[in-house]
Amino acid sequence: MTMSRKEHFILAGFLAPAIIVYTTFLLGPVMGSFFYSLTNWNGLYQTMDFVGLRNFVNLMEDGVFAKAIRNTMVFTVFVVLIQNAIGVPLALAMDSRIRSKQVLKTLFFVPAILSPLVVGYTWTYIYEPQNGVLNTILRTVGLTGWEQSWLGDPQFALYSIVVMAVWQFSGYSMVIYLANLQTIPGDLYEAADIDGAGKWQQFKSITFPLLAPSITINIVLSSIGTLKAFDIIYVTTKGGPYYATETMTTLLFSTAFTKSSFGYGTAMGVVMFFFVFIISLAQILLLRRREVH
Fold it and tell me: What is the percent of the chain where pLDDT is above 70?
């Protein structure tokens, strides 16, 4: 059934506002970023010179940017693995007959809706070396040798932020897994019980394979979120100490807005765009293949 010219105009009228907003606030800035990455614009004045690929060549020789990429990957791998490893057991517990599970669901999910600024400031107080909650507890139980400057020591700073991110978003992963668990037919478990399969065998043969769609969603979403994480890192360490927690986003921000090197910072943004795109696409292709099998 073909539409008339009038129906085409009506459809275009409904689509026009969305297209205008999309072009103005997403597509336009993205295209502008590609242009500015080829200039030496400082972000303050209108004057700029076209420098071609010089910014990208300099990035390849930039040791701080290389460290930021390594930190970003370490942060992403640890957060994604631990967050999902915690999310599955939490979902299984919430799907069981445990008492007060509605209250527990709320408690586990609340951190996910908190602002990263609130989370950052809260954990900064917890990690405070002298009077922070964590070191105070360690002193109280006699583990004074375990006290650390958790955000001030380059050896511990990045992993301390990993703990913060995992604490905030494990409940978010739990909710997605729980929604998937509730779609699995109970008949499958009843048949497994009749066949004498134990709880672990049921999880391995029924639950885990049928969780494939939610595993794909959780891994892709958590990877994208951690690859572009900014607020929680900037509030706590601003990329320090000694670039120990510097990620692509924090380095991009400081380069473009603190050092007024907007063209160079935008080049970092372009590299980050392709970085996130390639990783996300690879994850989707690999995990979707697992869903099919």
Answer: 98
Question: Which one-letter amino acid corresponds to residue 70?
Answer: R
pTM of whole model > 0.85?
Answer: yes
Asked if 250 and 230 count as a contact pair (C-beta separation under 8 A), the reply is yes
Among 111-120, 190-199, 246-255, the range with the most confident prediction by mean pLDDT is: 246-255
C-alpha span between 280 and 216 (Å, rounded): 10
CA distances 263 to 46, 58, 60, 98, 136, Å, are 12, 12, 15, 55, 46
User: Tens digits of per-residue pLDDT, 157-173?
Assistant: 999 999 999 999 999 99
Alpha-carbon distance values, 84 to 10, 175, 238, 251 (Å):
45, 11, 27, 27
Tokens of 71: 């930190």
Please give the structure tokens belonging to residue 267.
Answer: 């080049």
What is the rounded distance in angstroms from the CA atom of residue 146 to the CA atom of residue 142? 9
What mean pLDDT is predicted for residues 25-37? 85
Structure tokens at 82: 């631990």
222 with 83: CB under 8 angstroms? yes
Residue closest to 239 by CA, chosen among 168, 127, 151, 155 = 151
Q: How many other CB atoms are there within 10 angstroms of residue 291's CB atom? A: 12
Distance CA 105, CA 177 (A): 12
